[in-house]
Amino acid sequence: MTVRMVSTRDAAKTAYSYTDALLKGLAEDGGLFVPEEFPRFTNEELPALKNAPYADIAYAVKKRLIAGAIPDSVLRRLIDDAYAANVFAAEHGEIAPVKQIDAGLFVQNLSLGPTASFKDMAMQLLSRETAYELARRKEELAILGATSGDTGSAAEAAFKDRAGIKLFMLSPEKGMSDFQLAQMGALSGGNICNISVRGRFDDCQDLVKTLKSDAQFASLGAVNSINWARISSQIPYYFSGYLRIAREVGEPIDFAVPSGNFGNVLSGYYAKVMGLPIRRLIVATNENNVLHKLITTGNYEAAPARVTSSPSMDISKASNYERLVFDVFDADASKTTRYMREFAESGRVSLADYGLTTDAFTERGFVSGTSSHADRLRTMRYVYERSGTIIDPHTADGVHAARELADENAPIVCLATALPVKFEHTIQEALSFIPPRPQRFASLEMKIKDDAFLTIDADVDELKKILRARLSKN
Ligand SMILES: *Cc1c(COP(=O)(O)O)cnc(C)c1O
Fold first, then answer.
1. How confident is the model over 233-270, as pLDDT tens digits?
2. Backbone Cα Rg of the chain
3. Within 10 Å of residue 363's Cβ, how many Cβ atoms?
4. CA nearest to 101, candidates 414, 392, 383, 377
């Protein structure tokens, strides 16, 4: 089977390949790329993966989604290279280990990569796929991204020194943790350019959008979670966590997912569509609970994001939600376009006005929860006292929602989306001590280069000037 990629806003359903979607990021009509049809695993095929190493599971899943757009033998090599011992600090040989923290409650650690957040899981593979495809096409690519913390360092670590690629990363001048700043600072130089914006994360994201809509810069690549390669590279760890717990505890299984841009939990939904019998997907939010309100009321309303102690989930609108909209509208691109346009114009939109209720979400397994700062601290303490495990504030949002929604009928796996070391201050507030630092981050702050960040106003002309200057020289 070939897998044709289509845009969520293209009623004509023009077909793209996986690698087109990989290099473009966003479709020209402003829509997001999705497979026209998902490959499925049968009940007979899943048990064969039960004891398989992570790379084998990743290969089995991605091979079906890429369907030859990258040759299977190449894909296998890229996957083995991405999930290798010199990239991920595997525990007992496991890239994404699962650990019990309470009765019926497990944590799957996705943060053993070079920058200590789950974003490494997808970014390490995406960067290799991108470099391979560019070399094959004899092309080069400039990528522009915006980060509130974790995307920046994960992308930079993944693209550092890759031939044919220049990466420009915008970040807000204030708002990142010291550790996150140090991570990006240490990676600057060569093909990596850090640009600090006098403004907030939303200003950075607006700059990216404005520039992408300018013909001269339209070919810039994207590595945030709207890129289908990110979403598709996150599907395998749901298979890996599920099969592991199914083997030890039984089925079905729920997942709890700390959510911001809706990319991670959407990958879980696609795993379900591909035949993994996940029961519920618990969308966990913090005080910025746009997604929680959406799932419980059917109303999607942008709200200015405020800064919380789980900052990577501080979003005012969730870009990947458009993919779910397309799904609940049965792949009707015109209806999806109308819905997204209404949202863009008025900042709010209601599912009821499009003939659907919140059943559209619950039928697909989505439920949701929300936490406050106090909930996070209490949850971190609870988990530490119960199991001796230190969880980061984002994971705490997930565990909090999981505990509220738990029932007798299914164990819950909560995805651990960052290591505690990234958020030392909040851990200290919760547990009264600073979490031990993994050796590989020991002297991180010493590695920052003096001119690690260029600083600009939130002004598109200033940004264009920098890009023009850097893109003209080789
Ligand atoms: C990016 C991020 C999230 C949110 O993930 P989405 O895919 O945007 O929903 C949650 N936790 C951490 C630590 C992150 O870095």
1. 999 999 999 999 998 898 999 999 999 999 999 999 99
2. 21
3. 10
4. 383
User: 223-245 burial, b if ≥16 CB within 10 A, otherwise e?
Assistant: bbbbbbbbbbbbbbbbbbbbbbb
pLDDT digits (tens, 9 = 90+) for 365-396: 999 999 999 999 999 999 999 999 999 999 99
In a 13 Å sphere around the CA of 45, the CA atoms on its Cβ side amount to 13
Pairing of strands 278-285, 253-258: parallel
> Model pTM greater than 0.90?
yes
Neighbouring C-beta atoms of residue 348, cutoff 10 Å? 12
Widest Cα–Cα separation across the chain: 62
Best of 310, 313, 395, 419 for a ligand 1 pocket test (most atoms within 8 Å of beta carbon): 313
Under DSSP, the state recorded for 368 is E
Rounded Cα–Cα distance for residues 369 and 390 (Å)? 21
Residue 321 · residue 360 · CB < 8 Å: no
* Omega of the bond leading into 236 within 30 degrees of 0 (cis): no
| Mutation pick for ligand 1 pocket among 111, 123, 238, 264 (CB with most ligand atoms within 8 Å) | 264
- Distance (angstroms) between ligand 1 centre and the Cα of 259 equals 6
What is the C-alpha to C-alpha distance for residues 234 and 48, in angstroms, rounded to an integer? 20
